[in-house]
Amino acid sequence: MIGLLCIFIFLISTVLFASLYMKLLRGNNSKIPPWPKSSPSVLGEYSTAAVAADNEICSDIGRDILLHGGNAVDAAIATLFCIGVMDTQSAGLGGGHFMTIFNATTKTCHVVDAREIAPLAAFKDMYKDKWNNSKYGWEAIGVPGELHGLWTEYKNFGGKIEWKKIVQPTIDILAEGPPTSHHLAGSLKHFEKQILAEPTMRKYYINPKTKQVYKVGEQIRTRDNFKRTLQRLADAEDPVELFYRGEMMKEMVKEFQEHGIKFCSFF
């Protein structure tokens, strides 16, 4: 009799938990399908897909792009936009990159060289007797290749998902205020003296509450200008035209000229 009672209680409990679980699933309004479990491969070989970036938030963005129908290049571009915010000290619109793309179907490999280059008006002795100007300040600039490379990769190897949807997750992060990553916090502390000395840097990387550079985990809510920049690029029919030859170019040239830089024709 006791055995039958235990079996009955077990069955009732099982049905109850099953019904609660199904209700929970039905209550999940996420449009993102479940992510498949990763392969147990020690070598990191995955049967479906994998996204690995410097920052977990950015890896998740790349994963979501895949789940919404984007291909590997679309996911990589979305991840790079995010890394440009989370690890600004080593990535972003002001720099450049290389991207190697291997097509497993055709067995072909493509390399996109999107590294930054010297301004056309640069000359051999421009930093003579002022070497620090090559590292800090308004003269320490190359023509950024990042956006040109991302757009080239998207048009030639991606494009399975709308461009705006690739950029939007990073815009959303900026709107909320990204947490300061360990890598970024370390760089901010290392260059704190230079940041405090440059008004345009101080405006964005000094916490208005503490009057110090942002520390690990503190939300950066001071990058509204960059958020608007990404929004304009996301909405643009041709972001390369806008950035390198259009209104953004004119705005950048004007800002450089206001800070005493004469060789602004490189844009």
UniProtKB/TrEMBL annotation:
Which residues are noted in the entry as L-glutamate-binding? R115
- GO BP terms: glutathione catabolic process
One matching Pfam family, short form?
A: G_glu_transpept
Q: Which GO terms describe its molecular function?
A: glutathione hydrolase activity
One GO term of the cellular component aspect? plasma membrane
Q: What domain of life does the UniProt record list for this protein's source?
A: Eukaryota
Q: What is this protein called?
A: Uncharacterized protein
Q: Which organism is it from?
A: Panagrolaimus davidi
Q: What is the lineage of its organism?
A: Eukaryota, Metazoa, Ecdysozoa, Nematoda, Chromadorea
